[in-house]
Amino acid sequence: GPKVNIARLARHALSHAGGRVTENLAQQNHGFVVIDAQIQVTPEKTKDLFALFKDAVFALCERAVTMPEFQ
């Protein structure tokens, strides 16, 4: 979904662009605080991202345990 895509783009900016907002991320309504073109990772955003991925991973695991390949 769009939130996961924004998280992916933010991770890319932090890991590969020195924390600078990339063109792709700038085109999104990402909600990150930006100072001097640098992404500021705030506690609120960290909490939001953790919740987003926790729910996604939980849903994936719930589905995986029903598959014969994982039993």
Question: Could you walk me through the main structural features you see in this protein, from its secondary elements to its overall organization?
Answer:
- The protein is mainly alpha-helical and 71 residues long.
- The protein is 58% helix and 8% strand.
- It has three helices and two strands.
- Strands 1-2 form a two-stranded antiparallel ribbon.
- β1 and β2 form a beta hairpin.
- The chain is elongated.
Tell me briefly what this model is.
With 71 residues, the protein is mainly α. Helices cover 58% and strands 8% of the residues.
Helices, strands, pairings?
Blueprint: H1 2-16, H2 23-26, E1 33-35, E2 38-40, H3 43-64
Antiparallel strand pairs: 1-2
Structural features:
71 residues; mainly alpha; two-stranded antiparallel sheet; elongated
Order of helix and strand elements from N to C terminus = HHEEH
- Shape, principal axes of CA atoms: elongated
The helix tally amounts to 3
Distance between the termini: 28 Å
Number of strands: 2
Largest sheet entry? 2 strands, antiparallel
In which order are the strands of the major sheet placed?
1-2
Radius of gyration: 15 Å
Low-confidence segments, given as residue ranges, are none
Q: Based on helices, strands and strand pairing, what is the structural class? A: mainly alpha
Overall mean pLDDT stands at 92
- What is the helix fraction of residues, given as a range? 55-70%
